[in-house]
Specification:
This is Steroid C26-monooxygenase. Helix content is 48%, strand content 12%. By secondary structure, the chain is an alpha+beta fold. The chain has one domain: Orthogonal Bundle (Cytochrome p450).
């Protein structure tokens, strides 16, 4: 048997705190890309997996969605959580979102929400995005000259967009914010409800109870929003189960909020760290599209997804056995020296920009167009109005192995 390639640098991918130290993370990933791009990882508390760190390998795996499947391990979680969620899914009572599914079910479920994220729907939302962007930049002007940009602006602007799309009342927004932060902050002591698997399951139960009530309401009184489309959807003539319906809401409400929030906060930090690029963008607003893509490349709100091999195969000549899991490190792919010139540089005009922050292939992010539009609207409003901006304290990153970004960004600024 060929010895497994095991590079200790890859253990950082199974460390929530590893993602709070950008320098260490990027140094470790650069080492892996150069010396062990396919590395076996055994980390305490987790089942073993292969760490995949090269852009080309990740794209190849994403293309082969029959060979490398999302089920049964779509993301990195501690073994105890894997076991509990697997048992729940088998009993028909567990979270089962698009990221847990494979075709043909994934394809059919994706169609339910697809129309709400196509260009026509985005054009209809653009006016609302622009209005909210102005409201929140005006809030910055009123609130200045200092604030925590994450907690006062970045977490709120995209939440209003996604929950407006779902048709939820404004009075429920604080509840949704708390639940989404608890869901994706499960590895962070500040945001987690508790440190045990049962605490995470309690968060999911709160989500389900809320959305089950919403489903009943939308089935009795349909409205013109995404919630009604989900509540009244059918597959092969049959309505979705209560669990699948609630799971659909969860992925839209949580992923649609937290990823964009991370992108906006991280994008502003990059502009602060790179004042020359901020000035360049102010001088040439036509660069906003490429600037947003560069923010998304550098921030990588979704750190990884996992796939499981359905047959013996190999990646970059390394044997991968049937049943073994691979972790696709998007953080690493987006800094791959073979794809991006000077990958550690933030370049608002970078073109082409083949980042993998939205994934690739059949599982490409359903809400990618919305995230891009929200970020574009916000920075189109903010950037021309900046007279000065700087850090007013140390930025803090969330501890996570899945979705996350900044949890604190203290800034001092002056706006027009």
């Amino acid at each position: 048997m060929t010895p497994r390639i095991m590079d200790k640098a890859a253990r950082v991918l199974a460390s929530p705190l590893g993602y709070t130290d950008e320098q260490r993370m990027h140094e470790s990933l650069a080492h892996l890309r150069a010396h062990a791009p396919v590395s076996w990882v055994e980390a305490e508390g987790y089942r073993p997996f292969w760490a995949i760190t090269k852009h080309a390998d990740i794209m190849d795996i994403e293309r082969q969605n029959d060979l490398f499947t999302n089920d049964p391990r779509p993301l990195l979680a501690i073994a105890e959580a894997d076991d509990v969620l697997r048992a729940q899914m088998e009993a028909g009572i567990g979270l089962r979102t698009l990221i847990h599914m494979d075709d043909p079910l994934h394809r059919d479920m994706r169609k339910i929400g697809a129309d709400w994220f196509r260009p026509k729907a985005m054009r209809a939302l653009k006016t609302r995005c622009d209005e909210l962007a102005k409201i929140y930049v005006d809030k910055m002007l009123e609130r200045g000259p200092e604030l925590d940009f994450v907690q006062e602006i970045a977490v709120n602007f995209p939440l209003y967009i996604i929950l407006s799309l779902l048709g939820l009342p404004e009075s429920d927004f604080p509840r949704m914010l708390k639940l989404t932060q608890e869901m994706f902050g499960g590895d962070d002591e500040e945001f987690q409800r508790g440190g045990k698997t049962d605490d995470m399951l309690a968060v999911l139960l709160d989500f389900f109870n809320y959305f089950n009530a919403l489903t009943a309401s939308r089935r009795e009184h349909p409205t013109e929003d995404l919630s009604s489309a989900i509540a009244n959807a059918t597959i092969n003539g049959e309505p979705l189960s209560d669990m699948d319906t609630a799971s659909y809401y969860v992925i839209v409400a949580s992923a649609g909020h937290d990823t964009t929030s991370a992108g906006i906060a991280g994008g502003l930090l990059e502009l602060i760290r790179n004042p020359g690029e901020l000035q360049r963008l102010q001088n040439d607003p036509s660069l906003m599209g490429t600037a947003v893509e560069e923010m998304i490349r550098c921030i990588v709100p979704v750190k990884e997804f996992m796939r499981t091999a359905q047959a013996d195969t190999e990646v970059r000549g390394v044997p991968i056995a049937e049943g073994e899991a691979v972790l696709l490190s998007y953080v690493s792919a987006n800094r791959d020296e073979e794809v991006f010139a000077d990958p550690m540089r933030f370049d608002v005009g970078r073109d082409p920009n083949k980042h993998l922050s939205f994934g690739y292939g059949v599982h490409f992010c359903l809400g990618a167009a919305l995230a891009r539009m929200e970020m574009n609207s916000f920075f189109t409003e903010l950037v021309p109005r900046i007279k000065s901006i700087e850090l007013a304290g140390e930025p803090e990153l969330m501890a996570t192995t899945f979705v996350g970004g900044l949890k604190r960004l203290p800034i001092r600024y002056s706006l027009k």
